[in-house]
Amino acid sequence: MAVTKPRREAREQQSAEVSEAQIAVHWQEEGYYSPPKKFVAQANLTDKGILKRFSLDRFPRYFEEFAALLDWYKKWDKTLDTSKPPFWRWFVGGRINACTNCVDRHLAKHRNKTAIHFVPEPESEAIQHVTYQELFVRVNEFAALLRDFCGLKAGDRATLHMPMVAELPITMLACARLGVIHSQVFSGFSGKACGDRVSDSESRVLITMDAYYRAGKLLDHKEKADIAVADAAKDGHKLDKVLVWQRHPGRYSSPTKLAEGRDFTVNDLLAKYRGKRVEPVRLPAEAPLFLMYTSGTTGRPKGCQHSIGGYLAYVTWTSKNIQDIHPEDVYWCMADIGWITGHSYIVYGPLALAASSVVFEGVPTHPDAGRPWRIAEELGVNIFHTSPTAIRALRKEGPDEPSKYNHRFKHMTTVGEPIEPAVWKWYHKVVGKGEAVIVDTWWQTENGGFLCSTVPAIHKMKPGSAGPGIPGIHPVIYDDDGKELRAGSGKAGNICIRNPWPGSFQTIWKDPNRFVQQYYARYCKNPKSKDWRDWPYMAGDGAVQAKDGYYRILGRIDDVINVAGHRLGTKEIESAALVVPEVVEAAVVPVADPIKGKVPDLYVSLKTGLKASEEIAKKISAAVVSEIGAIARPRQVIIVPDMPKTRSGKIMRRVLAAISNHQDPGDVSTLANPEVVDKIKELAR
Ligand code: WTA
């Protein structure tokens, strides 16, 4: 694979447009908090020797400890194959099945234990406790249906567009049992976004649900499936079947009709498969387990392909040692399974360890900000995992709510965005009642599992800092010229990982070239080298490392905005705006938001002669929602007479970002049209 170094101009653009890093908050260094003694006394990982044992001179052998947590049909012959950089292959020659590791192997000891607590949003609806035995039965029956009714087999893809219900992990595990590659699309994404992912992954089957509850309403979800089918058809891709789960079994809850011969109600079909058992397929360790689409620098989302063996080993080890999950724990990660956090840390990691994992359907602040603490109290949740956005919202709406309930957390996680020290301290003192250890975990869809975090019983916590690389992960910060910053320099640069790790994605689906260019080209020391040391992984985040070795993540260095912990490409939103015929140019910039971290502002210019109106602005906003989903809805659509541009015609997003964030846009005299800046200032809020 040819590696081309990005041209200097492109590199400058990459750092000149670091809108997020530029406006990143630079918190001061905070003091340390020690892990509570009670936590340390019961923790899975307390041996400090691990830090030495997982040093680079013992790479890649130390990762065998990760794989040893799993059951293998056949042990691997080679821990790491580096013959085709940077397409690293882990545990080569091994044979494994992810489903049996998450289900079958627990039956002997934990048959009657709850695997999944499904908490419906309406409090009037009872919580469902799915035992490991029941999970086994339901996964097998659904796997039989996928195999015999849909004809799916190992290597085929199935797109899932499912809400947060027990049937989602059941569907994923049924796919995993057969070796079918699942591609779950976040339920909040539009039918159009789902359709794009169906055609990119060439899925013949779409699995969805009729409806689900969100903020007190039963939403029609099936309507999105019809849009997805039509959208995929536009790309020339035909879906054979749409399988529709019923939110209320036995009752169809959507006003949208089922298409004869194409749409099938799972709950009806399942009657035929009662009692069926499916022999799990003994798959190669490097066979793909799933695709997870995520936003990047171009308009098209990319399908990150994750393996079975390496991925499962990585999420299981990190769930055990960073999340400190024991089989007797009740663990609740409040993320959505439609994102990587949910795949790794609601489904695969916790279930591989025979924990009880909570799947919550609804909005945390609905009907009030006490809801999560009521759930935690009722289920005896002792490990809690969420995002800074959720913590900020719960703090704002119910600062004293946690004190009203008797939940007791031993461990809490934050993930997805930088967390402000003040918010961290509320989480620690009020939610955790000062008794819980906190880990701030930094990682990405591409990575499979945590990259930086403290080891909860070994390292002290420091609010606002993710911590060092987890055992086995060796980060490094490079400057824009490709020079390594000294360890602990306190200077900002681009964070990279020196070594490969088993949880990493294997490639971008159908786009290996982009995989190489985007993550490895910039800091590759020698494109011809077969030595992994020459191929640092570039994460795309700005970071600083303090003297104590802890990393503080500053934010994205590319055109990705982190809205409420969800990744959105500015280009994706811009292309959605351009679907509206009146629009000729669009530019999206991130704006700091007290709850969501960042929100998008959308600047557009219209065809000559057209006048700005509230109606057009609304139409543009609606287009973004229907192309991508409500999470991408712009804070405001600002129709400008012209975009601020350089003399070569490039839109100066930096100037727009400054205006939106009420900052000084700096010297604009070199622009081709400096006079437009004041006009735009008047238009933007
Ligand atoms: C950001 C989510 C600061 C970061 C698991 C990264 C964070 C992007 C943290 C990936 C954290 C994630 N502190 N920033 N603890 N965790 N990020 O792919 O910018 O949805 O690149 O994966 O979120 O988002 P993604």
Please describe the topology of this protein:
Layout: H1 8-16, H2 19-23, H3 37-42, H4 49-53, H5 64-67, E1 78-81, E2 89-92, E3 95-96, H6 98-102, H7 107-110, E4 114-119, E5 128-131, H8 132-148, E6 157-161, H9 167-178, E7 181-184, H10 191-201, E8 205-209, E9 211-214, E10 217-220, H11 222-234, E11 241-245, E12 263-265, H12 266-269, E13 283-284, E14 288-294, E15 302-307, H13 309-321, E16 330-333, H14 340-352, E17 356-360, H15 371-379, E18 383-386, H16 388-397, E19 411-415, H17 421-431, E20 437-441, E21 475-478, E22 492-497, E23 507-508, H18 512-519, E24 537-545, E25 551-556, E26 560-563, E27 566-569, H19 570-577, E28 583-593, E29 597-606, H20 614-627, E30 636-639, H21 653-660, H22 676-683
Parallel strand pairs: 4-17, 6-7, 6-8, 7-14, 8-11, 11-12, 16-17, 16-18, 18-19, 19-20, 29-30
Antiparallel strand pairs: 1-2, 3-13, 4-5, 9-10, 14-15, 15-23, 21-22, 22-24, 24-25, 26-27, 28-29
**Structural category:** alpha/beta
Largest sheet: 8 strands, mixed
* Distance separating the two termini: 47 Å
Mean of pLDDT: 95
Residues in helices, as a percent range: 25-40%
Strand neighbour order, sheet with most strands: 12-11-8-6-7-14-15-23
Strand content: 15-25%
User: Compounds present?
Assistant: 5'-O-[(S)-ethoxy(hydroxy)phosphoryl]adenosine
Shape: globular
Count of DSSP H/I helices: 22
The count of strands amounts to 30
Point out poorly predicted stretches. 6-23
Rg: 24 Å
Oligomer: single chain
